[in-house]
Specification:
The protein has about 675 residues and is α+β, with helices and mostly antiparallel strands. The chain has 5 domains: about 1-60 and about 310-390, Nucleic acid-binding proteins (OB fold (Dihydrolipoamide Acetyltransferase, E2P)); about 70-280, DNA ligase/mRNA capping enzyme (D-amino Acid Aminotransferase, Chain A, domain 1, 2-Layer Sandwich), CATH 3.30.470.30; about 430-500, Orthogonal Bundle (DNA polymerase, domain 1); about 500-585, DNA polymerase, domain 1, CATH 1.10.150.20; about 595-660, Rossmann fold. The protein is built from 25 helices and 21 strands. The strands form 5 sheets. Strands 12, 13, 14, 15, 16 and 17 form a 6-stranded antiparallel beta sheet that branches. A 5-stranded mixed beta sheet has the order 2-11-10-3-9. Helix 1 packs antiparallel against helix 2 and helix 16 crosses helix 17. Mean pLDDT is about 90; it is low at about 60-65. It binds 2-(butylsulfanyl)adenosine. 2-(butylsulfanyl)adenosine binds near residues 80, 169, 221 and 282.
């Protein structure tokens, strides 16, 4: 009875996973889904005797970490021959025509730019997921792969072979990549250069719970085994789709070279509208018998070839390298380039990321360098035109040893790529950076910009955020560009900042790794700065989504006497150092499980106020409309793109009054 109930819940949840992640056509709301998941979780906890490693509850990832085991591939994971020219495709086609000496079909597919994976299924169950590794053996990452909702743990239907492997690409969709990097930027962590690195980095995470939080996806393109359903690659993939795999529906059978060139021409443009990164197309001979006849070279199959799209690249001169010191002391090298046009924009600077990258490129000042803007956000230097070097080669670029701003020797923590300036309390850009962060809109929302911070710092008035509250109108009038009116305005803005809720004050302190979201979590778990100060490592990591790294950073912040004094002074000036009674009293779960997107302008409350209300009532505020959106709270002038997407996805649009009614 109970067992049947558990099974029914599992089946139903898996069906909804499939609808959502494979078909992109959910039939229930997230709220209902979460409710069902919770019910299953509770039943499983109460009845461990009915445990099942394939239960949808396991997809959220357990916290167990372990080193990956190495597994030898049953069929080696080969790579493909690469070409960049249509001539070579013609050669491939002619070669195949000659070798086979009979008619053949070519299947054209997109080449997905992620990290490859090989899954083994036995009796319809996922038993193992292995990375490519060196092609012969790879890492067993089954626990991580199980967190990808579009990967079937159990197959649908019955017509699948008893045992087979399926290969595909694990991808981090652009939207997730952007979100992840934004979050990392906020926390001053190094950014992922492209979705491929982000996907492979994520898959190597030892903690499946982190993997689960990153929303990877997986597309499949290759079936291997003894008893495959069909004699054609294309037909096999169609069958695999019915078993529940995400098989791209853009694959096409081509009967001629012209068909192939048309496919390339179309996707070279259209790929920019896909949710995931692609870097070319793959051509495969369809018939498995013909594939066997053509065979393999030592590295790759003779029956397939990859055509890579040309990344947009330019050549220009490296004029100099500068080193920037961020708010938390991270030193970032930046290449200053002779301006050059690349993919429609003028590029003057490129990120060099870290010391290892500089060393790897063997850069010299004055070098002609190649700049690319592939999937990258910031253009990057991919190589040096060594031939263009003259006898008078410029100086070799070396990572600096001391802070360019304060002269303190830099440190590079073991295992990290970045260098830091450890002089937190004396290094000007770190001091100014912390104040700039403190006053930003999302923190204290004090009406001054970086230039004013600079002036106040230079004049000796402000050395930390608490000093702002001792400023007087007379002080300001002694500075350039200040008049009575603007000085009064700043006083007013400072006064108003004393009403800013605790979570934003906490965010404003600029504790490393404590971004907006983490600050909210900490505030709602501990309620006051005193409680947070006294929290132990165990207390901190017990909070949802607070890991060891964040916990250590909080502990280290409060272990510093200077920081405790700063917090005390801020408290004395009247800043909110605890969640208000009102906030505590007004909390509800009325919007629990609902994801709401805010769009347009409003008359009754500001956008930020609506955002706060959503969170206060247990809902989730999201920036973009997706299949997960439950409601759009729409004001005047809602963007047409959002409107169109909402209509397409059938997301309900509500106005201010309807929203406020929901909270009644
Ligand atoms: S077929 C033996 N099809 O590109 C042929 N590969 O250099 C096995 N890739 O390692 C690969 N999209 O990671 C194939 N539609 C596609 C692909 C694809 C991306 C990757 C894959 C492979 C590499 C080949």
């Amino acid at each position: 009875m109970l067992k049947a109930k558990i099974k029914a819940l599992r089946d139903e949840l898996e069906q909804h996973n499939y609808n959502y992640y494979v078909l992109s056509a959910p039939t229930i709301s997230d709220f209902e889904f979460d409710k069902m998941m919770k019910e299953l979780q509770e039943l499983e906890e109460a009845h461990p005797e009915f445990a099942d490693p394939d239960s949808p509850t396991r997809r959220v990832g357990s916290d167990l970490s372990k080193e990956f085991e190495q597994v030898v591939h049953k069929y080696p994971m080969l790579s493909l021959g690469n070409t960049y020219s249509e001539d070579e495709i013609r050669d491939f086609y002619d070669r195949t025509t000659r070798s086979l000496n009979e008619p053949f079909e070519i299947v054209a597919e997109l080449k997905y730019d992620g990290t490859s994976i090989s899954l083994t299924y036995e009796k319809g169950r996922l038993v193992r997921a292995v990375t490519r590794g060196d092609g012969t053996r790879g890492d067993d990452v089954t626990a991580n792969i199980k967190t990808i909702r579009s990967v079937p743990l159990r197959l649908r239907g019955t017509d699948f072979p008893e045992e087979f492997e399926i290969r595909g690409e694990v991808l981090l969709p652009w939207a997730e990549f952007d979100r992840l990097n934004k979050e990392r930027e906020e926390q001053e962590e190094s950014l992922f250069a492209n979705p491929r690195n982000a996907a492979s980095g994520t898959l190597k995470q030892q903690n499946p719970a982190i993997v689960a939080s990153r929303k990877l996806d997986a597309y499949f393109y290759y079936l291997l085994g003894e008893n495959l359903p069909a004699e054609g690659h294309y037909e096999n993939l169609q069958a695999a789709r019915t078993w529940g795999f995400k098989i791209p529906d853009v694959i096409r059978k081509c009967q001629s070279l012209q068909d192939i060139f048309d496919y390339i021409a179309y996707w070279d443009v259209e790929r920019k509208n896909l949710p995931v990164a692609t870097d070319g197309i793959v051509l495969k001979v369809n018939s498995l018998r013909q594939q066997r006849n053509l065979g393999f070279t030592s590295k790759s199959p003779r029956w397939a070839i990859a055509y890579k799209f040309q990344a947009e690249r330019a050549e220009t001169r490296l004029n100099s390298v500068s080193f920037q010191v961020g708010r938390t002391g991270t030193v970032t090298p930046v290449a200053n380039l002779e301006p050059v046009l690349l993919a429609g924009t003028v590029v003057k600077r490129a990120s060099l990321h870290n010391a290892d990258i500089i060393e790897g490129l063997d850069l010299h000042i004055g070098d002609q360098v190649y700049v690319e803007k592939g999937g990258e956000i910031i253009p990057k230097i991919v190589g040096v035109n060594v031939e263009a070097r003259s006898m008078l080669m410029g100086d070799k670029v070396r990572f600096i040893r001391v802070c360019p701003e304060c002269g303190t020797p830099l440190v590079r923590p073991e295992g990290e790529a970045a260098h830091y300036c450890p002089n937190e309390s004396g290094c000007p850009p770190q001091i100014k950076g912390r104040i700039e962060h403190f006053v930003t809109r999302k923190a204290m929302n004090i009406n001054i910009g970086p230039e004013t911070v600079e002036d106040l710092y230079n004049a000796g008035y402000v050395k930390n955020s608490a000093d702002l509250y001792t400023l007087t109108v007379a002080d300001l009038l002694r500075l350039e560009r200040w008049a009575e009116k603007s000085a009064q305005n700043l006083m007013l803005s400072l006064e108003e900042s004393k009403q800013v809720p605790f979570e934003r004050v906490l965010f404003g302190l600029g504790i490393r790794f404590v971004g907006e979201t983490v600050a909210k979590r900490l505030a709602s778990a501990f309620h006051s700065i005193e409680a947070l100060e006294q929290a132990s490592l165990e207390d901190l990591v017990a909070v949802d989504e607070i890991g060891e790294r964040i916990a250590q950073s909080v502990l280290s912040y409060f272990s510093d006497e200077k920081n405790r004094m700063l917090v005390n002074r801020l408290k004395e000036h009247g800043l909110r150092m605890a969640v208000s009674e009102e906030q505590l009293a007004n909390r509800s779960e009325k919007l629990k499980g609902l994801t709401i997107v805010i769009s347009g302008t409003f008359s009754k409350h500001s956008r930020d106020e609506y955002k706060a209300m959503i969170e206060q009532h247990g809902g989730k505020n999201s920036g973009s409309v997706s299949g997960k959106t439950d409601y759009i709270l729409a004001g005047e002038n809602m963007g047409p793109a959002k409107l169109e997407k909402a209509a397409k996805l059938g997301v309900k649009i509500i106005n201010e009054d309807e929203f406020l009614n929901m909270l009644e």
